[in-house]
């Protein structure tokens, strides 16, 4: 469902485009790339000079290479357009500090610790926050999204539609469906065995998400 129509006059001032891409490499690793571009619909006066309409104020990119456990093996950042040419770009090499981090374990906190404030570029660091979910979507293309896994699919219980008690899980992931408490109390005798034959539902081994879903990441 699209946004409702606008009933008043307005003029666009700014466009920000954020693009993320995931690539499966021939050596068994994966590249996740992110790019941010800011463009004004009018001539824009900066302290460093006037930026003509349609010419990017920001055009910045980052690429990380990861393994299947989402550990970062390589990282590179670049700035092709900045508000302060020749100055903003100097921080790009600092993003090599991403190497050794894991997208699944404490990544966002590590980014804030390493690149917060004057230790980083706010736009590059903002891009990094998108990398974990972009990686999940990339892996989702390579792993069937079905109910056959011995481990609970990663996306379950991570949004309202995929609540383990919800209709979407009952319909598409019946093995992991849990009846709402009221329904369970009225239909299930006390002291029955757990719904899952495996006992307590697990999220899979650390760093190796099971069937990351296209609907949530």
From TrEMBL:
Organism this protein belongs to = Rhodocyclus tenuis (Rhodospirillum tenue)
What protein am I looking at?
Answer: DUF2889 domain-containing protein
Which residue windows does the record flag with biased composition (Polar residues)? 205-217
Recorded hits in InterPro entries, A to Z, give: DUF2889 (IPR021312)
Show the segment(s) annotated as Disordered. 183-217
């Amino acid at each position: 469902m699209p946004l409702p129509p606008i009933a008043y006059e307005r003029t666009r001032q700014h466009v920000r485009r954020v693009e993320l891409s995931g690539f499966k490499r021939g050596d068994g690793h994966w590249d996740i790339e992110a790019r941010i571009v800011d463009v004004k619909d009018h001539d824009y006066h900066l302290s460093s000079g006037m930026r003509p309409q349609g010419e990017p104020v920001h055009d910045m990119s980052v690429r990380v290479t990861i393994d299947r456990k989402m550990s970062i093996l390589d990282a590179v950042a670049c700035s092709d357009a900045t508000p302060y040419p020749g100055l903003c770009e100097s921080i790009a090499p600092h993003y090599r500090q991403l190497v050794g981090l894991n997208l699944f374990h404490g990544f966002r906190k590590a980014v804030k610790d390493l690149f917060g404030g004057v230790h980083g570029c706010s736009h590059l660091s903002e891009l990094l926050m998108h990398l974990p979910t972009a990686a999940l979507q990339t892996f989702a293309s390579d792993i069937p999204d079905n109910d056959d896994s011995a481990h609970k699919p990663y996306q379950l219980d991570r949004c309202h539609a995929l609540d383990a008690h919800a209709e979407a899980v009952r319909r598409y992931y019946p093995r992991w469906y849990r009846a709402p408490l009221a329904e369970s109390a009225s239909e299930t005798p006390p002291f029955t065995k757990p719904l899952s034959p495996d006992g307590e539902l697990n999220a899979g081994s650390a760093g190796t998400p099971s069937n990351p879903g296209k609907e949530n990441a």
